[in-house]
Amino acid sequence: MKKLSKVVILILVLVYPLAAGWGQDKKVLKTFEELQGVIISVSNLVKNSVVHIEVVQKVDDRKYKVMGSGVVTDEAGYILTNEHVVDNAQQIMVTLPSKREYPADLIGVDKQTDLAVIKVNTPEKLTVAKLGSSDATKVGEWVIAVGNPYGFDRTVSFGIVSGKGRVMPNFGREVPFVNDFLQTDAAIDPGSSGGPLVNLKGEVVGINSMGLGRGQGFTIPINMAKEVEKKIIASGGIERGWIGVVIQPFNRDFARYHGEPELSGVLIADVIEGSPAEKAGLKAGDIVTEVGKKEMAAEKEDDLNAFSLTIAETPVGEPIDLKVRRGKEEKKLVLNVGSQPKVKPEEFETGLGFTVKEITEGLYRQYALNDKVGVLVSFVEVGGAAFQGKLSEGDVIVKVEDADATDLPSFKAALEKHAKKSQLLLRVVRGKDKVYVLIPGSKQKAEK
User: Fold this and answer.
1) N- to C-terminal Cα separation, the chain
2) Is the model's pLDDT at 323 over the cut of 50?
Protein backbone atom coordinates (compact mmCIF):
# COMPACT_ATOMS: atom_id res chain seq x y z
CA MET A 1 0.00 0.00 0.00
CA LYS A 2 2.91 2.39 0.71
CA LYS A 3 4.21 1.88 -2.81
CA LEU A 4 0.73 2.50 -4.30
CA SER A 5 0.24 5.62 -2.18
CA LYS A 6 3.59 7.01 -3.30
CA VAL A 7 2.71 6.51 -6.99
CA VAL A 8 -0.73 8.08 -6.55
CA ILE A 9 0.76 11.12 -4.80
CA LEU A 10 3.38 11.51 -7.55
CA ILE A 11 0.70 11.38 -10.25
CA LEU A 12 -1.51 13.87 -8.40
CA VAL A 13 1.40 16.30 -7.92
CA LEU A 14 2.23 16.14 -11.60
CA VAL A 15 -1.26 16.03 -13.05
CA TYR A 16 -3.16 18.28 -10.60
CA PRO A 17 -2.03 21.55 -12.25
CA LEU A 18 -3.65 20.37 -15.48
CA ALA A 19 -6.97 19.80 -13.74
CA ALA A 20 -6.70 23.07 -11.79
CA GLY A 21 -6.83 25.37 -14.75
CA TRP A 22 -3.38 24.94 -16.20
CA GLY A 23 -4.77 22.56 -18.76
CA GLN A 24 -3.03 24.19 -21.67
CA ASP A 25 0.38 23.84 -20.10
CA LYS A 26 1.67 20.41 -21.10
CA LYS A 27 5.18 20.84 -19.75
CA VAL A 28 4.43 18.91 -16.56
CA LEU A 29 2.98 16.00 -18.48
CA LYS A 30 5.95 16.05 -20.83
CA THR A 31 8.34 15.95 -17.85
CA PHE A 32 6.42 12.97 -16.46
CA GLU A 33 6.64 11.14 -19.79
CA GLU A 34 10.36 11.89 -20.07
CA LEU A 35 10.99 10.46 -16.60
CA GLN A 36 8.97 7.41 -17.52
CA GLY A 37 11.05 7.03 -20.68
CA VAL A 38 14.29 7.19 -18.66
CA ILE A 39 13.05 4.48 -16.28
CA ILE A 40 12.07 2.22 -19.19
CA SER A 41 15.36 2.83 -21.00
CA VAL A 42 17.51 2.16 -17.92
CA SER A 43 15.48 -0.93 -17.03
CA ASN A 44 15.91 -2.42 -20.49
CA LEU A 45 19.62 -1.67 -20.44
CA VAL A 46 20.45 -3.12 -17.02
CA LYS A 47 18.30 -6.25 -17.39
CA ASN A 48 20.77 -7.59 -19.95
CA SER A 49 23.48 -7.79 -17.28
CA VAL A 50 21.30 -9.48 -14.62
CA VAL A 51 21.31 -13.28 -14.27
CA HIS A 52 19.07 -15.75 -12.48
CA ILE A 53 20.87 -18.05 -10.01
CA GLU A 54 19.62 -21.40 -8.67
CA VAL A 55 21.61 -23.09 -5.92
CA VAL A 56 21.33 -26.50 -4.30
CA GLN A 57 22.33 -25.95 -0.67
CA LYS A 58 23.06 -28.63 1.89
CA VAL A 59 22.45 -27.69 5.51
CA ASP A 60 23.11 -30.48 8.00
CA ASP A 61 21.31 -33.52 6.52
CA ARG A 62 18.86 -31.61 4.30
CA LYS A 63 19.11 -30.16 0.80
CA TYR A 64 17.34 -27.02 -0.37
CA LYS A 65 16.91 -25.17 -3.66
CA VAL A 66 17.62 -21.46 -3.30
CA MET A 67 16.99 -18.76 -5.90
CA GLY A 68 18.83 -15.48 -6.26
CA SER A 69 20.16 -12.93 -8.69
CA GLY A 70 23.55 -11.77 -9.89
CA VAL A 71 25.24 -8.97 -11.82
CA VAL A 72 27.73 -9.59 -14.63
CA THR A 73 30.82 -7.47 -13.92
CA ASP A 74 33.30 -8.86 -16.47
CA GLU A 75 33.12 -10.35 -19.97
CA ALA A 76 35.25 -13.25 -18.67
CA GLY A 77 32.15 -14.47 -16.82
CA TYR A 78 32.55 -13.02 -13.32
CA ILE A 79 29.29 -12.38 -11.52
CA LEU A 80 28.65 -10.58 -8.22
CA THR A 81 25.96 -11.97 -5.94
CA ASN A 82 25.24 -12.45 -2.23
CA GLU A 83 27.11 -14.83 0.05
CA HIS A 84 23.86 -16.06 1.57
CA VAL A 85 22.66 -17.12 -1.91
CA VAL A 86 25.62 -19.48 -2.49
CA ASP A 87 26.33 -20.48 1.12
CA ASN A 88 26.79 -24.27 1.50
CA ALA A 89 26.28 -24.63 -2.26
CA GLN A 90 26.61 -28.08 -3.78
CA GLN A 91 25.57 -26.89 -7.22
CA ILE A 92 25.23 -23.42 -8.78
CA MET A 93 23.34 -22.89 -12.05
CA VAL A 94 23.10 -19.55 -13.83
CA THR A 95 20.43 -18.61 -16.38
CA LEU A 96 21.46 -15.82 -18.75
CA PRO A 97 19.08 -13.35 -20.45
CA SER A 98 19.13 -15.72 -23.45
CA LYS A 99 17.33 -18.26 -21.19
CA ARG A 100 20.27 -20.65 -21.54
CA GLU A 101 21.50 -22.27 -18.34
CA TYR A 102 25.14 -22.87 -17.38
CA PRO A 103 26.92 -24.28 -14.31
CA ALA A 104 28.94 -21.76 -12.31
CA ASP A 105 32.08 -22.06 -10.22
CA LEU A 106 32.32 -20.42 -6.81
CA ILE A 107 35.39 -18.15 -6.81
CA GLY A 108 35.07 -16.92 -3.24
CA VAL A 109 32.84 -15.38 -0.59
CA ASP A 110 32.95 -12.69 2.06
CA LYS A 111 30.47 -13.47 4.80
CA GLN A 112 30.99 -10.15 6.58
CA THR A 113 29.71 -8.09 3.64
CA ASP A 114 27.32 -10.77 2.29
CA LEU A 115 29.13 -10.80 -1.07
CA ALA A 116 30.25 -13.63 -3.33
CA VAL A 117 31.87 -13.98 -6.73
CA ILE A 118 30.93 -16.79 -9.12
CA LYS A 119 32.06 -17.46 -12.69
CA VAL A 120 30.42 -19.01 -15.76
CA ASN A 121 32.17 -20.29 -18.85
CA THR A 122 29.93 -19.64 -21.83
CA PRO A 123 30.33 -19.09 -25.58
CA GLU A 124 27.76 -16.30 -25.31
CA LYS A 125 28.88 -12.70 -25.20
CA LEU A 126 27.95 -11.30 -21.81
CA THR A 127 26.64 -7.78 -21.18
CA VAL A 128 28.68 -6.15 -18.44
CA ALA A 129 26.93 -3.79 -16.02
CA LYS A 130 28.10 -0.22 -15.72
CA LEU A 131 29.32 0.27 -12.15
CA GLY A 132 28.88 3.69 -10.53
CA SER A 133 29.88 5.19 -7.19
CA SER A 134 27.91 4.62 -4.01
CA ASP A 135 29.80 7.47 -2.33
CA ALA A 136 28.22 9.88 -4.82
CA THR A 137 24.73 8.45 -4.23
CA LYS A 138 22.43 10.79 -2.33
CA VAL A 139 19.49 10.14 -0.02
CA GLY A 140 16.31 10.86 -2.00
CA GLU A 141 17.87 9.83 -5.32
CA TRP A 142 15.63 7.76 -7.60
CA VAL A 143 16.81 4.19 -8.11
CA ILE A 144 15.72 0.96 -9.79
CA ALA A 145 16.12 -2.53 -8.30
CA VAL A 146 16.35 -5.49 -10.70
CA GLY A 147 16.20 -9.12 -9.68
CA ASN A 148 14.27 -12.37 -9.80
CA PRO A 149 11.79 -12.21 -6.88
CA TYR A 150 10.00 -15.50 -6.35
CA GLY A 151 11.52 -16.74 -9.62
CA PHE A 152 10.02 -14.02 -11.82
CA ASP A 153 13.00 -13.21 -14.04
CA ARG A 154 14.40 -9.68 -14.27
CA THR A 155 11.66 -7.92 -12.37
CA VAL A 156 12.03 -4.14 -12.02
CA SER A 157 10.95 -2.04 -9.03
CA PHE A 158 11.29 1.72 -8.62
CA GLY A 159 11.97 3.83 -5.54
CA ILE A 160 14.42 6.14 -3.84
CA VAL A 161 17.51 5.84 -1.67
CA SER A 162 15.93 6.09 1.77
CA GLY A 163 19.13 6.21 3.81
CA LYS A 164 22.88 5.62 3.86
CA GLY A 165 25.25 4.12 6.41
CA ARG A 166 22.68 1.68 7.79
CA VAL A 167 23.90 -1.01 10.18
CA MET A 168 22.12 -4.35 9.89
CA PRO A 169 21.35 -6.59 12.90
CA ASN A 170 23.08 -9.97 12.82
CA PHE A 171 19.88 -12.08 13.05
CA GLY A 172 21.77 -14.75 15.05
CA ARG A 173 24.59 -14.98 12.50
CA GLU A 174 27.90 -16.47 13.65
CA VAL A 175 29.66 -13.67 11.79
CA PRO A 176 28.65 -9.99 12.24
CA PHE A 177 28.25 -7.70 9.24
CA VAL A 178 31.04 -5.22 8.52
CA ASN A 179 29.22 -2.91 6.17
CA ASP A 180 27.40 0.39 5.75
CA PHE A 181 24.24 -0.51 3.84
CA LEU A 182 22.19 1.69 1.55
CA GLN A 183 18.48 1.65 2.39
CA THR A 184 15.86 1.83 -0.35
CA ASP A 185 12.10 1.54 -0.66
CA ALA A 186 12.47 -0.18 -4.05
CA ALA A 187 11.11 -3.68 -3.49
CA ILE A 188 13.71 -6.35 -2.60
CA ASP A 189 11.94 -9.67 -2.15
CA PRO A 190 13.16 -13.28 -1.85
CA GLY A 191 15.00 -14.08 -5.09
CA SER A 192 16.06 -10.44 -5.59
CA SER A 193 19.18 -10.98 -3.47
CA GLY A 194 22.32 -10.31 -5.50
CA GLY A 195 20.62 -8.13 -8.09
CA PRO A 196 21.66 -4.53 -8.80
CA LEU A 197 20.38 -1.23 -7.48
CA VAL A 198 20.74 1.23 -10.36
CA ASN A 199 20.51 5.02 -10.61
CA LEU A 200 18.80 6.83 -13.48
CA LYS A 201 22.11 7.07 -15.33
CA GLY A 202 22.11 3.28 -15.62
CA GLU A 203 24.96 2.91 -13.10
CA VAL A 204 24.95 0.14 -10.50
CA VAL A 205 25.24 1.78 -7.07
CA GLY A 206 24.67 -1.32 -4.94
CA ILE A 207 24.18 -5.07 -4.77
CA ASN A 208 20.82 -5.86 -3.18
CA SER A 209 21.08 -7.97 -0.04
CA MET A 210 17.74 -8.28 1.77
CA GLY A 211 14.35 -6.80 2.44
CA LEU A 212 12.75 -6.33 5.85
CA GLY A 213 9.04 -5.86 5.32
CA ARG A 214 7.56 -3.60 2.70
CA GLY A 215 9.59 -0.58 1.74
CA GLN A 216 12.68 -1.60 3.73
CA GLY A 217 15.35 -2.90 1.38
CA PHE A 218 19.08 -3.00 2.13
CA THR A 219 21.83 -2.85 -0.45
CA ILE A 220 25.61 -3.31 -0.28
CA PRO A 221 27.32 -0.15 -1.56
CA ILE A 222 28.98 -0.80 -4.93
CA ASN A 223 32.26 0.78 -3.82
CA MET A 224 32.52 -1.86 -1.09
CA ALA A 225 31.44 -4.56 -3.56
CA LYS A 226 34.07 -3.58 -6.14
CA GLU A 227 36.85 -3.75 -3.55
CA VAL A 228 35.69 -7.12 -2.22
CA GLU A 229 35.33 -8.57 -5.72
CA LYS A 230 38.83 -7.44 -6.67
CA LYS A 231 40.35 -9.16 -3.63
CA ILE A 232 38.32 -12.35 -4.06
CA ILE A 233 39.33 -12.72 -7.72
CA ALA A 234 42.99 -12.07 -6.82
CA SER A 235 43.25 -14.43 -3.85
CA GLY A 236 39.93 -16.21 -3.29
CA GLY A 237 39.36 -14.44 0.02
CA ILE A 238 39.52 -11.23 2.02
CA GLU A 239 42.23 -10.03 4.38
CA ARG A 240 41.00 -7.49 6.91
CA GLY A 241 42.61 -5.49 9.64
CA TRP A 242 42.14 -6.71 13.21
CA ILE A 243 43.36 -5.56 16.61
CA GLY A 244 41.68 -8.12 18.91
CA VAL A 245 39.23 -6.25 21.12
CA VAL A 246 35.63 -6.61 22.25
CA ILE A 247 33.88 -3.24 22.15
CA GLN A 248 30.66 -1.70 23.42
CA PRO A 249 29.05 1.74 23.32
CA PHE A 250 30.26 4.39 25.74
CA ASN A 251 26.89 6.01 26.36
CA ARG A 252 25.80 8.90 28.59
CA ASP A 253 25.30 6.60 31.60
CA PHE A 254 28.93 5.49 31.41
CA ALA A 255 30.05 9.09 30.81
CA ARG A 256 28.25 10.32 33.93
CA TYR A 257 29.63 7.40 35.93
CA HIS A 258 33.14 8.51 34.93
CA GLY A 259 32.31 12.06 35.97
CA GLU A 260 32.58 13.44 32.42
CA PRO A 261 29.06 13.66 30.98
CA GLU A 262 30.31 15.11 27.66
CA LEU A 263 32.99 12.48 27.02
CA SER A 264 32.38 10.30 23.92
CA GLY A 265 34.16 7.26 22.59
CA VAL A 266 34.16 3.47 22.28
CA LEU A 267 34.48 1.36 25.42
CA ILE A 268 36.99 -1.52 25.35
CA ALA A 269 35.16 -4.37 27.08
CA ASP A 270 37.87 -7.00 26.63
CA VAL A 271 41.28 -7.46 25.04
CA ILE A 272 42.16 -10.81 23.43
CA GLU A 273 45.32 -12.42 24.73
CA GLY A 274 48.26 -12.11 22.35
CA SER A 275 46.42 -9.66 20.08
CA PRO A 276 47.89 -6.46 18.58
CA ALA A 277 45.80 -4.49 21.08
CA GLU A 278 47.32 -6.29 24.06
CA LYS A 279 50.84 -5.88 22.68
CA ALA A 280 50.25 -2.15 22.28
CA GLY A 281 49.09 -1.81 25.89
CA LEU A 282 45.35 -1.34 25.37
CA LYS A 283 43.36 -2.47 28.41
CA ALA A 284 39.78 -3.40 29.26
CA GLY A 285 38.01 -0.27 30.51
CA ASP A 286 39.90 2.06 28.17
CA ILE A 287 37.81 4.54 26.19
CA VAL A 288 39.01 5.04 22.61
CA THR A 289 38.23 8.59 21.51
CA GLU A 290 40.18 8.66 18.23
CA VAL A 291 41.39 6.09 15.70
CA GLY A 292 43.88 7.58 13.29
CA LYS A 293 42.49 11.06 12.82
CA LYS A 294 38.86 9.99 13.15
CA GLU A 295 36.93 10.89 16.28
CA MET A 296 35.00 7.98 17.77
CA ALA A 297 31.58 8.22 19.43
CA ALA A 298 29.22 5.32 20.13
CA GLU A 299 25.99 5.87 22.02
CA LYS A 300 24.30 2.74 20.63
CA GLU A 301 25.34 -0.64 19.20
CA ASP A 302 24.86 0.64 15.63
CA ASP A 303 27.45 3.35 16.23
CA LEU A 304 30.18 0.74 16.78
CA ASN A 305 30.25 0.03 13.04
CA ALA A 306 32.39 3.13 12.40
CA PHE A 307 35.13 1.80 14.70
CA SER A 308 34.94 -1.72 13.23
CA LEU A 309 35.06 -0.46 9.63
CA THR A 310 38.00 1.83 10.33
CA ILE A 311 40.05 -1.05 11.74
CA ALA A 312 38.91 -3.54 9.09
CA GLU A 313 39.85 -1.22 6.23
CA THR A 314 43.33 -0.51 7.61
CA PRO A 315 45.96 -2.56 5.70
CA VAL A 316 47.44 -5.44 7.68
CA GLY A 317 50.81 -4.54 9.20
CA GLU A 318 50.19 -0.81 9.06
CA PRO A 319 50.59 1.14 12.32
CA ILE A 320 47.58 3.06 13.55
CA ASP A 321 47.35 5.75 16.24
CA LEU A 322 44.78 5.52 19.04
CA LYS A 323 43.83 8.26 21.47
CA VAL A 324 42.63 6.67 24.71
CA ARG A 325 41.16 7.84 28.02
CA ARG A 326 42.20 5.71 31.00
CA GLY A 327 40.65 7.13 34.13
CA LYS A 328 41.45 10.85 34.03
CA GLU A 329 44.57 10.30 31.97
CA GLU A 330 44.77 10.65 28.19
CA LYS A 331 47.13 8.27 26.39
CA LYS A 332 48.35 7.89 22.84
CA LEU A 333 49.02 4.35 21.68
CA VAL A 334 50.43 3.04 18.42
CA LEU A 335 49.60 -0.50 17.39
CA ASN A 336 50.36 -2.56 14.31
CA VAL A 337 47.14 -3.83 12.78
CA GLY A 338 47.04 -7.62 12.49
CA SER A 339 45.22 -9.93 10.10
CA GLN A 340 41.70 -10.88 11.10
CA PRO A 341 41.45 -14.55 12.12
CA LYS A 342 39.17 -16.79 10.09
CA VAL A 343 35.55 -15.82 10.70
CA LYS A 344 33.75 -18.65 8.90
CA PRO A 345 34.64 -22.00 10.48
CA GLU A 346 35.33 -24.98 8.24
CA GLU A 347 32.79 -27.79 8.60
CA PHE A 348 33.37 -31.53 8.26
CA GLU A 349 30.65 -34.14 7.81
CA THR A 350 31.95 -37.35 9.41
CA GLY A 351 29.60 -39.87 7.80
CA LEU A 352 28.77 -41.17 11.29
CA GLY A 353 25.68 -39.05 11.83
CA PHE A 354 27.38 -35.91 13.07
CA THR A 355 29.13 -32.80 11.76
CA VAL A 356 31.93 -30.83 13.40
CA LYS A 357 33.38 -27.34 12.99
CA GLU A 358 36.82 -26.00 13.63
CA ILE A 359 36.90 -23.72 16.66
CA THR A 360 37.41 -20.13 15.54
CA GLU A 361 37.68 -17.12 17.82
CA GLY A 362 34.01 -16.41 17.12
CA LEU A 363 32.81 -19.89 18.10
CA TYR A 364 35.04 -19.89 21.16
CA ARG A 365 33.26 -16.79 22.41
CA GLN A 366 29.78 -17.66 21.13
CA TYR A 367 29.73 -21.01 22.98
CA ALA A 368 31.75 -19.75 25.99
CA LEU A 369 34.20 -22.63 25.53
CA ASN A 370 36.98 -23.36 28.01
CA ASP A 371 39.65 -23.14 25.30
CA LYS A 372 40.13 -23.58 21.54
CA VAL A 373 41.35 -27.18 21.69
CA GLY A 374 39.32 -29.77 19.76
CA VAL A 375 36.41 -29.60 17.32
CA LEU A 376 32.86 -28.44 18.02
CA VAL A 377 29.95 -30.78 17.30
CA SER A 378 27.57 -28.59 15.28
CA PHE A 379 24.97 -31.17 14.19
CA VAL A 380 23.82 -34.63 15.30
CA GLU A 381 21.45 -36.58 13.07
CA VAL A 382 18.38 -37.75 14.96
CA GLY A 383 18.39 -41.56 15.08
CA GLY A 384 21.93 -41.79 13.68
CA ALA A 385 24.94 -43.55 15.16
CA ALA A 386 26.16 -40.48 17.06
CA PHE A 387 22.64 -39.85 18.39
CA GLN A 388 22.49 -43.42 19.69
CA GLY A 389 25.83 -42.88 21.42
CA LYS A 390 24.43 -39.73 23.07
CA LEU A 391 26.76 -37.27 21.36
CA SER A 392 25.26 -33.77 21.64
CA GLU A 393 25.44 -30.53 19.68
CA GLY A 394 27.82 -28.20 21.49
CA ASP A 395 30.12 -31.01 22.63
CA VAL A 396 33.83 -30.52 21.97
CA ILE A 397 35.70 -33.64 20.83
CA VAL A 398 39.32 -33.63 22.05
CA LYS A 399 40.28 -37.27 21.48
CA VAL A 400 39.40 -40.11 19.09
CA GLU A 401 40.44 -43.45 20.62
CA ASP A 402 44.12 -42.96 21.52
CA ALA A 403 44.70 -39.98 19.20
CA ASP A 404 44.47 -36.36 20.31
CA ALA A 405 42.10 -34.17 18.26
CA THR A 406 43.42 -30.71 18.98
CA ASP A 407 42.03 -29.16 15.79
CA LEU A 408 40.13 -30.11 12.63
CA PRO A 409 43.11 -31.61 10.69
CA SER A 410 44.15 -33.82 13.63
CA PHE A 411 40.50 -34.87 14.15
CA LYS A 412 40.23 -35.92 10.49
CA ALA A 413 43.49 -37.86 10.73
CA ALA A 414 42.37 -39.61 13.92
CA LEU A 415 39.02 -40.52 12.39
CA GLU A 416 40.69 -41.94 9.29
CA LYS A 417 43.15 -43.92 11.41
CA HIS A 418 40.30 -45.66 13.25
CA ALA A 419 37.81 -45.79 10.36
CA LYS A 420 37.58 -49.61 10.37
CA LYS A 421 36.79 -50.05 14.05
CA SER A 422 33.40 -51.49 14.90
CA GLN A 423 32.98 -48.90 17.65
CA LEU A 424 34.55 -45.52 18.18
CA LEU A 425 35.46 -44.08 21.58
CA LEU A 426 35.46 -40.29 21.81
CA ARG A 427 36.71 -38.10 24.64
CA VAL A 428 34.37 -35.12 24.86
CA VAL A 429 34.25 -31.84 26.78
CA ARG A 430 30.66 -31.05 27.76
CA GLY A 431 30.39 -27.81 29.68
CA LYS A 432 32.82 -28.14 32.56
CA ASP A 433 32.84 -31.94 32.41
CA LYS A 434 34.82 -34.45 30.39
CA VAL A 435 32.90 -37.53 29.31
CA TYR A 436 33.30 -40.56 27.03
CA VAL A 437 31.00 -41.22 24.09
CA LEU A 438 30.88 -44.60 22.36
CA ILE A 439 29.40 -44.68 18.86
CA PRO A 440 29.22 -47.29 16.08
CA GLY A 441 32.12 -46.92 13.65
CA SER A 442 32.12 -47.27 9.85
CA LYS A 443 32.57 -51.06 9.95
CA GLN A 444 29.48 -51.58 12.09
CA LYS A 445 27.55 -49.06 10.00
CA ALA A 446 28.45 -50.94 6.81
CA GLU A 447 27.36 -54.28 8.30
CA LYS A 448 23.94 -52.86 9.05
Assistant:
1) 59
2) yes
Q: Which of 243, 308, 311, 313 lies closest to 281, judged by CA?
A: 243
> Which domains, ranges and CATH numbers included, belong to the chain?
1-238 (2.40.10.120), 241-339 (2.30.42.10), 347-447 (2.30.42.10)
pTM for this structure? Answer: 0.82
CA distance 58 to 216: 29
pLDDT at 446: 36
pLDDT at 28 over 90: no
Identify whether 235 is a catalytic site residue. Answer: no
From residue 230, alpha-carbon distances to 223, 235, 313 in Å are 11, 9, 14
List alpha helices for 119-275, DSSP H. Answer: 222-235, 252-257
258 catalytically annotated:
no
In angstroms, the CA 111 to CA 108 distance is 10
Q: Which of 84, 134, 189, 275 is catalytic?
A: 84
- The predicted-structure confidence for 385-430, as pLDDT tens digits, reads as follows 999 999 999 999 999 999 999 999 999 999 999 988 889 999 999 9
Cβ atoms 88, 55 nearer than 8 A:
no
Q: Label residue 27 by pLDDT band (50, 70, 90).
A: confident
Catalytic residue among 157, 162, 193, 308: 193
